[in-house]
Write a structure and sequence with these properties.
The complex is a heterodimer. By secondary structure, chain A is of the alpha+beta class. Helices cover 20% and strands 21% of the residues of chain A. The two termini of chain B are 33 Å apart. Classes of the chains: A alpha+beta, B mainly beta.
Amino acid sequence: MQPPADAIRERSSRAIRQLALCLAASAVVLAGCAPAPPAVAFHAAGNPERLADWGVLAVRAGRLVLAPGVETYELNTPLFSDHAHKLRTLWLPPGKSARYTATGPFDFPVGTIVAKTFYYPRHGDGSPAEVSFTATAVSGAATGDLALAAVRLVETRLLVRREEGWVALPYVWNEAQDEAVLARTGETVPLMGRTVPGEPAQPFDYQVPDVNQCAGCHATDARRPALHPIGLAARHLNRVHDYPAGPENQLGRLVRLGWLTDAPLLTEIPRAARWDDVSAPLADRARAYLDINCAHCHQPHGPADTSGLRLDAAAPSGAAIGLCKPPVAAGQGTGDRRFGIVPGHPEQSILLYRMESSDPGAMMPEVGRSLVHVAGNRLIADWIASLPGDCR
Amino acid sequence: MRHLCLPRRPFAWILLLWLPWLAACETDHAAAPAVDTRYQQVLRERLLAAKPGEVIEIPAGRFAFDRGLGLRVDDVTLRGQGMDRTVLTFRGQKSGAEGLLVRANGFTLENLAIEDTKGDAVKVNEGERITFRNVRVEWTGGPKTTNGAYGLYPVRTRNVLIEGCVVSGASDAGIYVGQSSDIIVRRNLARDNVAGIEIENSTRADVYGNETTRNTGGILVFNMPNLPVPGAVTRVFDNHVHGNNTPNFGAKGSAVASIPAGSGIVINSNDQVEIFGNRLEDNATAHVIVSSYYSTGYMSSTGVAAAFDPYPEGIHVHGNRFKGGGDSPDGLELKALKLAMVGLGGALPPVLWDGYLNRSRLAGGQLPAELRLCVRDAGPVLNADGPNQYGNPTLATAPYDCTLAPLPAVDLGRT
């Protein structure tokens, strides 16, 4: 498949620059050249077998590095994925930009590549199957420059915007961490993890989704088959990020780069709370957590609108978000509880039961985790406990 | 190898007398054949690569899956070699809330079995022209609360045909059609589920020629609150609904948890339901229950949308045959009701109404003709007087002696 002409030009001009730099450097230190950094190649069709075919990120000299021009970003409150850390990147074709919208994901141009690399910090012993559940960021995480000895790369999911719409492509890293190969049918990666060194490691099955499961979250309008990004929306992105040149608001930067048009002033852009920011109001943190973890399905016209339960940021408080709401089709997922949320009583609330379950037949979200997010559940429990009223 | 399916429950031998074809079912429980774990990858790839119009033939054999399957391509047929020859087992499933999750139009699933999924066996979420034919869904350990909720589960679908299927062990409903329209459910067997067949918030459904037995409730026609569309216009006819006396094993709080064991056909909060020509036998609570959402125990002023209509209206019960039943109702309230009305040795009449009606629609003490509960050929109806805490239950025939216009047959526009 031929990459577009401008991408080829981009790539070749970079290569020439790189070669020039390299020659200049070798002239000075008389040392061998490091391999050239990757260059992005957008594939307008087909399913490239290797992540390297896209050039967004690559392994160079024991590090995972980004191609020049690829931007990292993070979300105020992320989806919980079995404690995996995520390196999120965005690439837009030269001269193209996304259009701002206040609520949904931005409207990205054809040629956009979103990449999300799921990885774990390693424990000191270096075994690739033994990973850490720590939330502490790995050095270089914000800028997308990771020492491979410090991390276990699991998978990189691409969401690419083609003429026909968004396409999801999951790539799984090998144990040597020098190559990630397309796994459209998904994969189960057995891992061991622990939070604190010394405590017994817990075995878990990390699930790489198959492409149909990608759609389970990213086809956010159940009436249509189209996929959409989820995190690339104003409220999730409106935060300061540590760039190599220093901290900057992510949306401000996208506007400055010419990647985002029609954005209002930063002060007018919505912002989701950070779930772990104890200085933010409890309700804001809880609703932000439910929004990113649940609302891809639980929103109007989402695949879970059949349940009558909405957990998107815009859902009004009341039965819509589960307050005293009897379940519709929860089956054994009720956990013998009667209502979605019983104010003041997390232990009587179906919502929390399903978040605390790791049984595929009862747990929520339905895919994307095999472990329980204790800290997230504590937040939701605290919030439910704080709610006034009862279910008469 | 053809085995005689020896029933696991003592009273089930009766089945063999009534339905000789049951005896020929080929379930191979005795000698579990080798399970193929490699085919999972093959089928997963075929589902991803499927093109519209494709028929995916699954060979005979027993195939294990540890992750749920998905399909998002229109007009695909997934076909096995018979519900006892092609078996997809999900025992030990590690991920996926369903065995198979479909979002597609023109989907057909036929001639295979799906066993022991963690959650629902097959869910179709959004789609038109959906067909399940000769599919067996089974939780092989028998009724358990930890079984998956639904067997065959089309939701938000239009033009649905479910025929010749056998579903057992669902901890909610074996065959569950939700929030859909233009539905035919015919000639299926649902046994050992909490609810055998359930039509919920759906419009224009014909449920006929089915056998439901050993469920907690045989056939349910329900409306639930907080959903965009209420259901109406369902015909339940020519079914054999018998011995649905399995103790309710649904999780508390689930939609069917309020169903008393021994329920034949249950209408809850739904409108324009016609029940006729059915054989109802040995359902120990009541053969037909007409009830309101108030009787489910889930009514909540905060949690139930004000727009929800909890009253069953325009219910027409006629020309059914009843035998036995009503002799051992489930739950203290119903036991007390029976004792008060017919004494220790008696039996509740075939039709039980909880007594809730929309008083704001009364004119001259009566509901408009088209909203009434009309019962004929069933003897007196027991009004349990739910609104007055069952204070003054009554047995009467005359108030229900009316008729309603027959509902039209469902036409799917296909053969």
